[in-house]
Amino acid sequence: LNGHPTERLAGNFNVSFEFIEGESMLLWLDDEGICASTGSACTSGSLEPSHVLLATGLPVEISHGSLRLTLGDANTDEDVDIVLEVLPKVVSRLRDMSPLYQKAAKDGGCNV
């Protein structure tokens, strides 16, 4: 989880996943009908990692694996359930394709 665990904007969730690119996550999530972003709304067209995440000390390679989801009044509990079902599968598929993840898992340096 990126940011403070409780002192945060309600409905805004930002998390990073090691060993995968945020842009790849976006493509796979979009295929499942899930709208997300890899950065703030004002930098959504940029491929650069979030300057805010970098300022918190998050390494560049982990910042590139960030994902931002925002809930609004139109979202339902079912929408959340769909994300909770789909997102782990997307992360798993992308890590299965990641040579860096495979190496870290083999070397025992992977906690996820």
List keywords for this structure.
mainly alpha, 112 residues, 2 strands, 9% strand, two-stranded antiparallel sheet, globular
Describe this structure in words.
The structure is a single chain. With about 110 residues, this protein is mainly alpha-helical. It is built from five helices and two strands; from the N terminus they run βαααβαα. It has helices at about 20-30, 50-55, 60-65, 75-95, 100-105, and strands spanning about 10-15, 65-70. Strands 1-2 form a two-stranded antiparallel sheet. Helix 1 crosses helix 4. The model has no long low-confidence stretch (mean pLDDT about 85).
**Mean pLDDT across all amino acids:** 85
Order of helices and strands: EHHHEHH
Low-confidence stretches are none
Strand content: 5-15%
Rg, alpha carbons: 14 Å
Write down the oligomeric state: single chain
Q: Helix coverage percent of residues?
A: 40-55%
Kindly report how far apart the N and C termini lie.
13 Å
Number of helices: 5
Compute the number of strand runs: 2
- What is the approximate shape? globular
The assigned structural class equals mainly alpha
| Biggest β-sheet strands, sense, barrel | 2 strands, antiparallel
Q: What spatial order of strands do you see in the largest sheet? A: 1-2
Summarize the structure.
The protein has 112 residues and is mainly alpha-helical. It has helices at 22-31, 51-55, 60-63, 77-96, 99-107; strands at 12-16, 66-70.
